[in-house]
Inverse folding.
């Protein structure tokens, strides 16, 4: 497995590859969710690249950029074992040299939900993702459904800016009790880890209600809110029942609907979602 730490090394290596390239973009501290994307890329593309870069521009000033878990040696071992061909591991100065001030400003898809809760977040995501697409030039890029809005923002950017890459979104990988895998789960102490199951339980409740015929989206949001509020360690950021395409909040449930939520468990902010098709 080739480990590339500079843009010049990446460009030299990339030039030599003739076949299709699949890309998995990550911020490291890899888990089974990331590795499932790597496996998918390996099955579908001749070469699989993984990028590891904790992107400072997508964190707000009061967010967890400094505390974000990092373990490059462990990540490289996992990727070697999974069979990635190349890992791009740039430093922040390599990605944002002094004076760099051009950004991608996503449109309406980025305004709600995570975009409303984390101002500037999707501008940072879209900018770094476009840079990584331009550098690595993949034919396909793989994202997790856990970050459903991120996938929607990137799809829209790729369509609007004519970026020649296919976006594949793969199912959320969950722990045995339903908690969506996330590098941020490592922040949780045992009591918080237990409480964190409330996200998936509330999504399951929404699914049951809607599959059982409930069409009033506000009732679904209320029932989810009640369930989460009964968990003392949980504090709701938002609970949403939205149109899966536009992300507009629904009054009446039509499909496909994206049921999503952001909840703070202690000091850890977790997100999750299900799509009802
Ligand atoms: O999903 C993530 O880990 C990040 O937002 C991404 C896509 C790697 C961009 O920094």
């Amino acid at each position: 497995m080739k480990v590339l730490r500079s843009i010049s090394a990446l460009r030299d290596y990339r030039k030599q590859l003739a076949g299709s390239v699949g890309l998995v973009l990550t911020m490291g501290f890899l888990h089974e969710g990331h590795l499932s994307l790597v496996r998918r890329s390996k099955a579908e593309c001749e070469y699989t690249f993984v990028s590891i870069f904790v992107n400072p521009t997508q964190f707000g000033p009061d967010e967890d950029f400094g505390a974000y878990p990092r373990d490059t040696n462990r990540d490289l071992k996992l990727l070697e074992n999974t069979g990635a061909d190349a890992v791009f591991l740039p430093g922040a100065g390599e990605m944002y040299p002094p004076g760099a001030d051009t950004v991608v400003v996503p449109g309406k898809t980025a305004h709600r939900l995570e975009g409303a809760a984390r101002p500037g977040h999707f501008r940072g995501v879209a900018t770094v993702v476009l840079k990584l697409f331009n550098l690595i030039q993949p034919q396909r890029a793989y994202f997790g459904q856990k970050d459903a809005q991120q996938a929607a923002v990137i799809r829209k950017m790729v369509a609007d800016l004519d970026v020649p890459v296919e976006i594949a979104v793969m199912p959320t990988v969950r722990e045995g009790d339903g908690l969506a895998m996330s590098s941020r789960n490592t922040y949780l102490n045992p009591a918080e880890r237990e409480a964190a199951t409330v996200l998936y339980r509330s999504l399951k409740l929404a699914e049951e209600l809607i599959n059982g015929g409930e069409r009033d989206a506000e009732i679904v949001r209320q029932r989810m809110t009640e369930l989460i509020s009964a968990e003392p360690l949980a504090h709701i950021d938002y609970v949403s029942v939205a149109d899966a395409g536009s992300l507009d909040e629904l009054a009446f449930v039509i499909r496909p609907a994206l049921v999503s939520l952001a909840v703070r468990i202690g000091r850890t902010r977790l997100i999750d979602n299900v799509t009802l098709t």
About this structure: The chain has a mean pLDDT of 97. Residues 2-170 form a domain with the Rossmann fold fold (CATH 3.40.50.620). Residues 99 and 112 are 30 Å apart (CA to CA). The pocket of pantoate is lined by residues 25-27, 55, 58, 125, 128-129, 147, 150 (CB under 6 Å).
